[in-house]
């Protein structure tokens, strides 16, 4: 019995280990820049892969980092929910009203170009020290990708669907709920993916606003304790969690898109 070998099969086999090759190459470069073989700086050696992995294992095995991860994820969830509650309805209103869109477009684009971290002093003065300014900054960071993608989704709705709804004497609410919202879900998921990327970048500096827990706080704590191996371990944790969040939303987007295509052609 002979096996069939095609170029597509070979390409599939070659693609499987490529991410591993990329990670291995990054680890080699990391080791080259931190190995004591090239320099005698003991501080730089604390950032080496060996010491970082040892610190990472210790942080996870002892559970030291778990409360900080939970606190950061809770803040991200609250900020994201607040951004969805603001961005999706506002995006619907803007998308459905050309006059409202023209009157708010310049304002939204102007505010969107201001870094969320620029609001840090104002957030502290207005909301005090604690979780509230962090929630505010994360919401500001996430709301505009969701709002703009929701508006773009409304504009992308097939006009034939709207004409069909009108021909069936559907009200504006029924058209919005049964036609527009299902049609823009893929755009909203794209906005969520962009928002989670921005919110995760803003999280660490936002958690340096006088809070007593979180990944950003723990980075400051390791710096003050000169625990550089732990600092690098927390950086790896931040990257791994961010990658996991992005991958989850990418998978949800792909599943929804596939489901929508299946419904269209069935």
TrEMBL record:
Keywords: Cell membrane, Membrane, Transmembrane, Transmembrane helix, Transport. The keyword Cell membrane applies. CDD domains: TM_PBP2. Pfam families: BPD_transp_1. It comes from Stenomitos frigidus AS-A4. PANTHER family: ALKANE SULFONATE ABC TRANSPORTER-RELATED, MEMBRANE SUBUNIT, TAURINE TRANSPORT SYSTEM PERMEASE PROTEIN TAUC. It is a multi-pass membrane protein. This is ABC transporter permease. The keyword Methyltransferase does not apply. Belongs to the binding-protein-dependent transport system permease family. It is found in: Cell membrane. Residues 69-249 form the ABC transmembrane type-1 domain. The lineage of its organism: Bacteria, Bacillati, Cyanobacteriota, Cyanophyceae, Leptolyngbyales. The chain crosses the membrane at residues 20-40, 76-95, 107-129, 135-157, 194-220, 226-245. Its main location: membrane. Gene3D superfamilies: MetI-like. InterPro entries: MetI-like, MetI-like_sf.
